[in-house]
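Design job #97: recover the sequence.
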């Protein structure tokens, strides 16, 4: 085939990945060049200009519509609809493929928000103003895209891509398309990792600030009598970091009380609920509310009546980050209780 057509394939990303792969396969099997928005990042105006130029150079535009409207631009229109409108304005022949409403479809790939559903319905109506094909599976979509493109290319031939002295081989075209697609997927995955890391850092920072800005007063007793108990004020952050090491796997409610008491007074605490069972449960409730601690998933014997807890993923990240800061700053990670605390306690006595 002397002439290669560039076909821009547009759809929402996550929910129609397999269907878009079928569209790419159909174009490649015909010996043409597939292009899609997933090969770029439409996060800002500069990148949108890059996508716009690709659409301007495109010979045919394929739009696949499922049950999601997709991520939106600052103007409140989805990137998919924005691409479709731009292709029409450029005079690029558009081929619409809308999912059959009766087709079986996973519930988690359907928009539930009324606002999104309304925008999606309006977009489908816009696409249906021109002749469209209705599909009910990725295999069905593959066949209909192939047939529609062949008919359109025959009835409405475009400029395409060609060279006078060299015939571009089909294998080279496929390899270039494969490498281009692979590159775009790597870029998307890399951006996802960057976004996820930034989100995780913000989540840890928020939890750390909340813990640091809240204090709790604990009366810790050295014997079975509460008459000799002393009151200490500590931030929730210090209390969490005292309990965290033994929560990486799991710890009991009373074990958490022992760890916290030990971090404040060393070994000078009563082994049976050093600052009370209720106070310990309230502390744990605070950590649970911040999604730092959760009930342990390990199994225990029926005779074991203790409650066990462990760190959540967020709790592990916060403990890891705090301990790393301590190590980098040369601060002891063995707990709050040290010689200065002992000296201070002796002065109080």
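Job complete. Output follows.
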């Amino acid at each position: 085939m002397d002439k290669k057509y560039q076909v821009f394939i547009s759809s929402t990303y996550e929910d129609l990945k397999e269907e878009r792969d079928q569209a790419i396969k159909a174009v490649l099997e015909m010996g043409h060049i597939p292009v899609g928005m997933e090969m770029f990042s439409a996060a800002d105006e500069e990148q949108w200009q890059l996508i716009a130029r690709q659409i301007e150079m495109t010979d045919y535009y394929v739009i696949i519509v499922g049950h999601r409207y997709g991520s939106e631009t600052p103007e409140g229109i989805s990137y998919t609809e924005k691409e479709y409108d731009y292709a029409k304005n450029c005079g690029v022949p558009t081929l619409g493929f809308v999912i059959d409403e009766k087709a079986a479809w996973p519930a988690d790939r359907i928009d539930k928000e009324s606002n999104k559903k309304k925008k999606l319905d309006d977009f489908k109506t816009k696409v249906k103003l021109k002749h469209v094909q209705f599909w009910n599976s990725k295999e069905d979509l593959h066949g209909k895209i192939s047939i529609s493109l062949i008919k359109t290319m025959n009835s409405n031939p475009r400029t395409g891509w060609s060279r006078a002295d060299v015939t571009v081989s089909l294998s080279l075209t496929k390899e270039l398309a494969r490498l281009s697609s692979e590159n775009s997927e790597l870029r998307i995955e890399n951006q996802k990792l960057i976004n996820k890391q930034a989100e995780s850092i913000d989540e840890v920072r928020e939890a750390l600030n909340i813990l640091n800005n809240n204090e709790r007063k604990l009366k810790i007793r050295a014997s079975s009598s509460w008459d000799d108990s002393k009151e200490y004020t500590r931030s929730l952050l210090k209390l969490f970091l005292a309990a965290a090491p033994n929560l990486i796997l799991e710890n009991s409610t009373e074990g958490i009380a022992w760890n916290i008491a030990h971090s404040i007074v060393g070994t000078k605490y009563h082994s049976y609920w050093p600052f009370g069972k209720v106070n310990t449960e309230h502390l744990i409730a605070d950590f649970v509310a911040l999604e730092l601690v959760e009930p342990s998933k390990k199994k225990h014997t029926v005779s074991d009546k203790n409650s066990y807890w462990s760190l959540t993923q967020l709790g592990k990240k916060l403990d890891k980050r705090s301990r790393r800061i301590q190590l980098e700053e040369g601060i002891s990670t063995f707990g709050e209780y040290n010689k200065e605390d002992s000296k201070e306690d002796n002065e109080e006595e």
